[in-house]
Amino acid sequence: MRSARLSPYLFIAPFFAVFAAFGVYPLLYALQLSLTRWRGAGEAHWVGLGNYLYLLTSPDFWASLGNSAVMWLLIVPVQVVAGLGAAVLLANAKLRLRGLFRVAFIAPFVTPLVAMAQVWIVVFDQDYGLVNHVLGLFGLPAVGWLTSTVWAKPTLALLFLWKTTGFAIIILLAGLQAVPGGVYEAASIDGASRWRQFWSLTVPLVRRSTAFLVVVQTLAVFQMFAEPFVVTDGGPYGSTTTAGLYLYDHITASDLGTGAANSFLLVLLVFGLSLGAVRLLRPKDGAS
Amino acid sequence: MSAPTLGRRGFLKGVLGAAAGASLAACAPGGGTSAAPSKLAAPSASASAKGTITIWNRSGDLFKVFDAAIAKFRAAYPGVTVNHQAVDIDAKLANTLISGTDVPDGSFWDDAKIGSQAEHLYDLTDLIAPHRDKVAPYKLSVNTVGGKIFGVPWDLDPGLLWYREDILQDTGVDPAAIATYDDLLSAARTVQEKNPRTKPIHLDKNPFLGQLWLEMMANQQGTSLTDAQGKLRLDSPEYRRVLGWVREVVKGGLATHAPYLEPADINTLDGGQQVFVPWAIWWSFAPQQLLKATKGKWRAMPLPAWTPGGARSGAMGGSSFVIPAKAKNPELAWLLYEFLCFTEPGCTAVYGPNSVYPGGLSTSVPAWTPALAADKPLFKPLEALGGQDLWKVAVEAAATIPAAAPIPWWWAQSVDYLGDNTQRLIEGKMTPDDVIADSAKKIQRNLIDRS
After folding, report:
1. Number of domains in chain A
2. Is ipTM beyond 0.90?
3. pTM score
């Protein structure tokens, strides 16, 4: 009898064991680490909330958040609009070469980021890049796409957009295809124009998908690391040091306590932003 | 009597509670690590030494060079098997030392990185003691942390003044007359007057290398970013002198501001815009491998002095070998490194002609001074330098390099402040005083105060 009562728990115990080892333990370890000053060797010094206070009063920390916020503004609204537009087009069964377009949009998403980042470095090189070469053909001056504080962020944002807009299209396309065709048919019978259908039906009905996309991309943008790491190494003058890269800098400097504190602050921030996005985009009438 | 039932919530609480308890008990950072570094005792340097060691090195040509040198070591110590591995050391070594898992018996490492992980390394002070009089003072100082030596000094990278011999001849500038940095400014002005399209002096656009360059100039004057106690000494006449000189170069329109050996740099080097490159000996790679139009036209001489009669070189970069405190066979690793760094056959095996570099390895010189005789070159004159005997120039310059201070663990992080601000100076956005004040404030707050 006793073994029969225990057996369900034994069946789920492996999950909890793995979760405890690879989920709970690292989390608690990081939390404890964030309250210490420790460089990976010797005794850890308890500093309480010192690492958090240091970060919250550090101009570098706020600058990294500012960089990520600008990246978010350059990426997420553009991606939602462009992704929805592309999804509507791709959802149209009458579109010619629809399969080809779908593959073309999704191809960057499955291409290794580091390879694409190298291409970006070459294409946007100030002296020998293709983009400046084309500008030169029109008599325009060369731009420091990756070396000026003004242009480095938009250039990286473009890389991120190119890489992940395929993912946005998949999410929004799935949302669109879940909308029953009869809704549009009824609207047509009622005399609604295509534009009216888009604004009054499509946009509200894919709100849940849009909210999901915004949350996921907010997480991705605030954790953005590989793009600035490979392309600009956070420069010029820290203008592309995103929150993710700033955190990494602490870890590579073996300033593990500050790195851990930074990660918890980032979690709180992203959680707050995601919550805000979900509330803002939550359907009011239970639409899908 | 019924058995007590285990509720679902109770079970979950129990599992999570146990996990949390175990985690908190086990996750005290640094709990298992001793703060005192282990001291390595001298092994008997006997040919009968036996065992296997795992040695990490950088990949690429240097790995092949060391592979051949290790074969010579094995001839002297046939009982020692060396598992020589090419590893991305910058990415792996620090993490491996911290985790203590799969730690090698010895590894190549940048001098600048050693200070940050000294607690994970063997204290080699006693082993190096018999050799310390024969090691370049600079290399001893950068491998020292808290008065103890943690790296086996391998190479020395003297700064040299690389110049276009043909252009100086055409413009009537005698390189031998460039004895001070003021002389270099005058020479650059003369070159530019006769050839206005030149921007003769290279200033680097990479913040990290720019700061490394600045440190070379500081070392040449006998100072460095911190003193032996770790106190910042950026606000000093020596740094102000270098930064002031940089401003003069920029204001005079004499600078080519390009990133080290990237296309824009190579183009202006080969195109005749750059005439003087004050840089480490490893710039010799450029005329040998990268430059086409100007190959054979470059020459090297010692750096100018900052003050008349001052030192004619400083060190720029460099590497050593470390033995992790958790190495399984540290004594055997020491035997290998002692052979490579402190013996004539070892130095010859690394720097002398070999299958990878038929003329020898000419991108640095040994830190072991008995190997630095001007009349006993380890590498041959370079065709890419018009047949110049770079060895002679390099060892004469190396002999003047002053001692420094230990490189602080945060050196690489300080590039975000000093390296970036040096770039702002070159771009005319800051004055030398601004660079010093702003960098010193940020380094103190963000790095030193948090040590």
Report:
1. 1
2. no
3. 0.85
